[in-house]
Every structure is written in structure tokens, then in C-alpha cells.
Amino acid sequence: MDRQGRLVGKYRKVHLPREEWKKGVRPGFEYPVFDTEFGKVAIQICYDWFFPESTEIFALQGAEIVFAPTWGNTLPDKDGKIDGESTFRVRARDNAVYMVPSVYSGNSLVIDPMGRMLASSAGQEGVFWAEVDLNAREPLKWVGHWGSIGPRHRRPSTYATLMEPGMGGGALRKLNGADTKTSRRVHVFYYPWYSNPQTDGAYGHWNMTQIVKQGQPVYYPGGDDIAANFYPQLGCYSSASEQDIAAHMQMLRQAGVGVICTSWWGIGDYTDRVVPKLLDWAAQYGIEVCFHIEPFRGRNARITRAAIAHIIDTYGSHPAFYRYGEGAGRPMFYVYDSYLTPASEWAAILSPGGAESIRGTKYDAVVIGLWVKQREGAFMT
Prior knowledge:
By secondary structure, this protein is α/β, with parallel strands linked by helices. The protein has two domains: 18-154, Nitrilase/N-carbamoyl-D-aminoacid amidohydrolase, CATH 3.60.110; 169-193 and 239-380, Alpha-Beta Barrel (TIM Barrel). It has helices at 18-21, 52-60, 84-95, 146-153, 170-176, 197-200, 242-254, 270-273, 275-284, 301-315, 343-350, and strands spanning 34-35, 40-43, 65-70, 98-103, 109-111, 117-120, 183-190, 208-210, 218-220, 257-264, 288-293, 323-324, 330-335, 366-368. A hairpin with a 5-residue loop joins strand 5 (109-111) and strand 6 (117-120). Helix 2 packs parallel to helix 3 and helix 7 (242-254) crosses helix 9. It is elongated, with a radius of gyration of 25 Å. 29% of the residues are buried. Residues 165-173 have low confidence and may be disordered.
């Protein structure tokens, strides 16, 4: 909640101990970071802090402070063992975040990104605090500020062992669809035009006015009230959230989808800006990406040719960029509402002898138009 008592966001505990799942408690599946007036914060609950991945995900998403309400012990280490206190210090240092465990049985702490304890409840009940500077960037010797350097030096492609059977990853591989065979012949249309306040500052495409045949139009604000008969499992997700993109890729992989056709509304559009993340996460899940060129403002055959050239030049070297056919293959583009442009104009860029033909050039591609109704066949002549 913010200072005005408004809901900023929700976090549901992801990691459940045996006692909780046996009682029917359902885990969360997301690691949200909340943008507040003083900084970006995240929350992990009790058993979550046993798993280093959760803190790392929060940090990679920009969290500056991770609050950790927990029942468990954070008393000083004894007999040389690393207990909760040291674990939280390591989490803070590894991820360059402030860790604030609030503990029922033990010491509540404020720990800085270097792993230093700034304040402690010393095992007592009460209220305590520490003043921190979120703009401070204390460097590590020989390395620099870890919060800036570390994420850039990560190499996720080498971490596949985390997903392997025998390393606790067998179930995770199954969950992620890693054992599911995908088909490059299965194409699914994907619409990356959704935004939410947590990631983008406002709702987009979740909030809209429904056009009705009779009466006044109905406005749906987004959040818990959207203009749809079904509510998405991930809630009002953001197409720019790497966490949400990863969840989508997991679902697509589980369904055996080999190629997604991402909706694209022109250079610089929101749907264009999310493409790098989309390609990176698709590659992680063995999925390829082609483009669904929408009827953006001013689109005609010549501008479509320029769009094809831009997409190939910008994204064509990515390993997840889809190409149709054997060998090197050719890029594939779906063109929505292609019948809005006369066939003679399309011929200029798609026929071998066209004035600005892509045939035989580095922009040669498979281009599929849309034919919705019988009368629209007229655009072919």
C-alpha cells in the first residue's frame, strides 16, 4: 500500500514448505517489483529466501530493496554454521540490493548492498530503522559497482545445468516444457501490445471502451475489470516484462508451438521495442519468431518493403529469427488486411519483375496476405 492507502501491487509466496502445500495453499508464479515514490521494492515471504534465484530475479528486474517477512531464525551464526543472518547478507551482496528481513523469531535486520548490517532489532520486539541512500554506488575492488556490472556479465546460456535432471531440475524441465517436442509447422499469433502500471506506468489494451450495438459504450479500466469473457492466468501482464514473456514462452513450449508470429505496428512502436526481449526469451525456450505486419498508419506496399528491410536488418541475425524452408531459408511475414492495398502495388515489391521487387535481394521473403471474405478476393485482380 502507498502512503494514501492505495494498492500498489500484490506478491504471492512462490515457494511453499510441505506444511503449506499439504493444506492446499496455492503458490504464486510471479516475482513483481513495485515502483514506489522512494524506490523500487520487492517482497519475498518466509521460505522464499531459501532460494537464491528469487532474490536474483528481483534484482534483475530493478529492485533496490527486498523486504523479507519471515518466521525463521536470523540469529547470529553459531558453531561455524551459516544461518539466516549470513544468508541474508550474502543475498544482499550477490545482488547489490538492500535486504530487510522482518523476523518473528530472531533478529530483524537492515542490510546494505555490500552485506553490512545497518540496523538490527537484536532479537527484541519494537520498531527500528536505518536511513539509506538508494543513489549511492559503492564499488567493489577491481570490479566496480556490482549492481551495474554483474547483470551485464551474466551468461544465462551457460546455466543449463540448473535445468538438468539430477540437479533438481527434472520437474522444472517438465514444467518449462523442455521435454516437449515443438514443431516449426505450428505458428501462433502473438500480440505484444499489453502494458500495466507496474512495468509501464499505465494500462494499455487492458483498458478500453467496448462498442455496443445498442445503448452507451461500456468502458473497462483494466486491472480486475477488463473487456473480455475470460481473465488471463497471469493477470494484466505487461508485454515488456521479461518475467511475463518467459511465462508465455513456457506455455507455448508446453503446447508444442515452434513459431510465434508477433504483431508489429511499425518502427518505434511499443510492439517493436519489445522485440529484442521477445527474441531473447524465445531462444531460451527453443521457439522462433516471425513478424505479423499490421496496418499501421500510412502503410502501403512501398512502406511495407521498407518495414521488411528494417526487420531483417535489425533482427535477422538473431538465432530465434524464423526462416522458412531448408538450409538458410527465407524470412516469413504475415501481412494483416493486405486487401487494403491494390494487388498492382503489391506486385511492385513481390513479383520478380516488380519495380522495387524484393525477389533475388537480401530482403527476399515469404509474404502471406489475408483473405477474410469472398468479396475480398477482388483485390487479387
